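Design request, C-alpha cells follow.
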C-alpha cells in the first residue's frame, strides 16, 4: 500500500463528500464514524446532559481538516473546530511551506502537572518548608495511594517543590506536588492528590491549608516546535525579513505580542476543542507562560539563518489528554483523535504545538506581505452570499462579483442575487 500522505493539493476545492471520503480512507474511519461527522446533532442530548448541568441543547461549530502537516516525519490530517474563517486554510498553507523545509519537528516533555497546596498561619515558614521536604516520601505515598492505576502505568506523584511566598497577608508556604499524569490532562488526578495530602501537611507543620488545586502554568509540560522554511518557498528574502521584523515588534511590544499569540492560539485551540480538551486550561497556561518573566512575550521566535531561510521555534505548555473527560465521552472528539491517529497525550501535544507554529507563520507571512484582509474577504464574501440566500453555484458567483467590484456588503450580495435570479446583467 502506498505511504499515507497529508499533502493533498486542492483539498479545499473538492466537494464536501469527497473531502469526507479522503479523510475516511486516511484514518480508516468506519461508516458509523463518518455518519457522526455528517450528523448535525453528533453530540446527543443524553450525553450532553451527563457532561454538564442544566442542559437545554448542544452548540455545534464547523469542523475543518488542515492538510499538508508533516510532523516528526509523520503525515497528519488535523481536525480543527473553529468559528473563524481562514484559519484552517492558513494552517494548511503554512504546513505546505514548512514541508518544503522537511516539515516540523515537535518535541514534548513528560506530562508533569503541578498541584499547589497553600499553607498559611505558620510562625516559622522556612522551618515548615523543611518539615514538608523531610516528609516528602510520606507525602508522595499518600498522593499515590489516590491513583493506583496511574501509578501502575508509570505515572503518579514524583516529586515536591516548596516555596515561601510573601503575600499582603503574611507568608505562605506553597507546596508543589509534581505529578506525571501520562495520557490524561490531569486536573482530576492532581486535584484529588492535592486534597489528600493537605491534612498531613497541616499535621507536620501546624499550619492551615486553604487552596489545593492544579496550576495551569504547566511549565513542566512543554512543547517545543521547530521549522526551517526555505526563503524561495516564501517568495524571497524580503518576506523572511518581514516575518522576522514582525516577530521583533511582538518581542518588545505587549500590545502586538497579545495578537501574535492570539494567532498561535487560533491553531492550538481549534485542535484542543476538536479533541474534547479543556481549551481554557491551555489558554491560561499559554498566556501565563508568555508572561513568566514579568513581561508579556511572544511564545514563538522567528529568525533568519545563514542561508537567508526562515527559522521558527515555539515553546509553550500544552496540557491535553487522550483519556478521561470529554476526550472519551464526546463522540466527535473520539473521531477527531482517530483522524489524528495519535497514540499518546505527548504526541497530541506535539501535533498541537506544530499547528500553533504553522498558524503563526501563516499570519505573519500574510501580515508582512499582502495583509490578512484579502484572504478573509474571500470567505467573508461567501458568508454574505449565503446569508443573502444564495445556494449551490450561486454562492461563489455572488462572492466573485462582490470581490471584483470591491464592494463586500450584505445589501450588495442581496442585490446581485436578485439580479442573477432574474437573469439580469450585472453592470461592469
Ligand atoms: C486573527 O485571528 C489572528 C491574527 O491577528 C494574528 C496576528 O496578527 O499575528 C492575524
Amino acid at each position: 500500500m502506498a505511504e499515507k500522505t497529508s499533502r493533498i493539493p486542492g483539498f479545499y476545492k473538492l466537494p464536501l463528500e469527497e473531502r469526507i471520503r479522503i479523510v475516511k480512507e486516511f484514518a480508516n474511519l468506519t461508516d458509523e464514524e463518518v455518519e457522526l461527522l455528517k450528523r448535525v446533532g453528533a453530540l446527543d442530548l443524553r450525553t450532553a446532559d451527563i457532561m454538564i448541568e442544566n442542559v437545554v441543547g448542544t452548540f455545534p461549530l464547523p469542523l475543518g481538516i488542515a492538510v499538508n502537516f508533516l510532523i516528526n516525519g509523520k503525515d497528519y490530517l488535523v481536525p480543527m473546530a473553529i468559528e473563524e474563517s481562514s484559519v484552517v486554510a492558513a494552517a494548511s498553507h503554512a504546513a505546505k511551506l514548512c514541508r518544503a523545509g522537511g516539515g516540523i519537528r515537535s518535541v514534548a516533555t513528560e506530562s508533569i502537572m503541578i498541584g499547589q497546596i497553600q499553607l498559611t498561619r505558620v510562625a516559622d515558614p522556612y522551618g515548615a518548608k523543611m518539615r514538608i521536604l523531610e516528609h516528602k516520601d510520606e507525602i508522595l505515598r499518600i498522593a499515590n495511594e489516590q491513583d493506583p492505576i496511574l501509578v501502575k502505568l508509570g505515572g503518579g506523584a514524583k516529586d515536591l517543590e516548596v516555596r515561601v511566598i510573601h503575600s499582603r497577608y503574611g507568608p505562605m508556604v506553597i507546596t508543589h506536588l509534581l505529578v506525571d499524569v501520562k495520557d490524561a490532562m490531569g486536573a482530576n488526578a492532581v486535584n484529588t492528590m492535592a486534597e489528600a495530602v493537605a491534612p498531613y501537611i497541616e499535621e507536620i507543620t501546624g499550619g492551615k491549608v486553604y487552596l489545593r488545586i492544579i496550576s495551569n502554568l504547566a511549565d513542566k509540560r512543554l512543547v517545543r516546535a521547530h521549522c526551517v522554511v526555505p526563503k524561495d518557498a516564501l517568495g524571497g528574502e524580503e518576506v523572511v525579513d518581514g516575518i522576522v521584523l514582525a516577530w521583533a515588534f511582538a518581542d518588545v511590544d505587549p500590545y502586538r505580542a497579545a495578537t501574535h499569540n492570539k494567532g498561535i492560539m487560533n491553531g492550538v485551540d481549534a485542535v484542543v476543542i476538536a479533541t474534547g480538551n479543556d481549551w481554557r486550561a491551555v489558554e491560561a497556561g499559554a498566556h501565563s507562560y508568555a508572561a513568566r518573566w514579568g513581561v508579556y512575550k511572544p511564545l514563538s521566535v522567528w529568525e533568519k539563518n545563514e542561508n537567508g531561510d526562515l527559522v521558527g521555534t515555539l515553546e509553550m505548555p500544552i496540557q491535553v489528554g487522550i483519556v478521561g473527560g470529554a476526550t472519551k465521552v464526546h463522540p466527535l472528539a473520539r473521531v477527531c483523535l482517530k483522524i489524528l491517529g495519535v497514540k499518546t497525550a505527548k504526541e497530541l501535544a506535539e501535533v498541537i504545538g506544530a499547528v500553533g507554529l504553522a498558524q503563526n507563520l501563516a499570519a505573519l507571512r500574510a501580515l508582512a506581505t499582502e495583509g490578512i484582509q484579502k484572504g478573509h474577504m474571500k470567505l467573508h464574501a461567501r458568508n454574505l452570499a449565503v446569508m443573502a440566500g444564495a445556494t449551490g453555484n450561486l454562492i461563489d458567483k455572488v462572492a466573485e462579483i462582490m470581490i471584483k467590484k470591491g464592494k463586500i456588503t450584505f445589501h450588495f450580495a442581496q442585490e446581485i442575487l436578485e439580479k442573477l435570479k432574474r437573469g439580469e446583467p450585472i453592470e461592469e
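Comment from the thread starter after seeing the answer: thanks! Residues 345-368 form the longest helix (24 residues).
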